[in-house]
Amino acid sequence: MKRLRRTFFNRSTLIVAEELLGKILVFKNHKGIITETEAYMGFDDPASHAARGKTKRTEIMFGPPGYSYVYLIYGLYHCLNVVTEKEGFPAAVLIRGLLVQDQKTGKDIHLDGPGKICRYLGITTQDHNKIDIVKNEDFYVGCVKKTLGFKTTSRIGIRVGQDKLWRFVGEF
DNA sequence: ACCCCGATCGTA
DNA sequence: ACGATCGGGGTT
Predict the structure, then answer these.
(1) What are phi and psi of A159, to 5 degrees?
(2) Is residue A76 in a domain?
(3) What whole-number distance in Å separates Cα of residue A127 and Cα of residue A71?
(4) A98 lies in some domain
(5) Which pLDDT does position A148 carry in this prediction?
(6) Mean pLDDT of the A91-108 span
(7) Residue A93 class from Cβ within 10 Å (0-12 exposed, 13-18 middle, 19+ buried)?
(8) Which nucleotide is closest to the Cα of A160 by its C1'?
(9) Cβ of A49 < 7 Å from strand C?
(10) Which residue range forms the structural domain that includes residue A56?
(11) What is the pLDDT of residues A104-145, one digit of tens each?
């Protein structure tokens, strides 16, 4: 499958978040259609982990685009992001929705939530943080010709930064 | 060393 | 509405 290159991720995070809708996430033997994303970017976004500067956890968000950022939330769940924008500007897109076909049952499963996605795919901070998904053989985003319609809303699960409509929900 | 809190999810 | 569960990051 043709895959997204670094130039795709080296753009405005809002554009990347929107255009990731309908693309295919490939992880090992799994494939799924991305149905929901959120943007986190810059120093004026209080909901972003990286808004108050670089730390050991968030340094990947300051790095070059096209890398995974996987973090543990509430001590229980992992969340997958893809780093966006030029090196030095902290930004990433959170993958919140994925439509997969279960390999045992053949049934469609809508993984609606970032924790569910990582749990289903087996993505962890320990094993899958800071991976270059532009180069990796079994962790990348594939191109798709179709683009989905979408809506924007405020982001889920945050207390600050709710004024920004940076959640992108695909219509499929 | 200590404390608070969180980009969630399942159950009630 | 709430508890589970733990690492990050700021403060002492």
Answers:
(1) -100, -30
(2) yes
(3) 11
(4) yes
(5) 81
(6) 96
(7) buried
(8) B7
(9) yes
(10) 6-171
(11) 899 999 999 999 999 999 999 999 999 999 999 999 999 987
Whether any strand C atom is under 7 angstroms from the Cβ of A53: the reply reads yes
Which nucleotides on strand C sit less than 7 A from a protein beta carbon? 4-10
What is the residue type of A114?
Answer: P
Any domain includes A1: no
A130 touches strand C (CB under 7 A): no
pLDDT of residue A146: 78
Q: Domain with A58 in it: what CATH number? A: 3.10.300.10
* Nucleic strand B under 7 Å from the C-beta of A73: yes
Instruction: State the Cα torsion A169-A112-A68-A161 to the nearest 10°.
Output: 60
Q: CA A39 – C1' C1 distance (Å)?
A: 28
pTM (2 decimals)?
0.97
A59 nearest nucleotide via C1' and CA: C8
pLDDT at A144: 87
- Residue A104 placed within a domain: yes
Beta bridge partners of A153: A167
| Residue bearing tokens 């053949």 | A106
- How many separate domains does chain A show? 1
Q: Which residue is nearest to nucleotide C5 (CA to C1')?
A: A75
Residue owning tokens 């207390």? A159
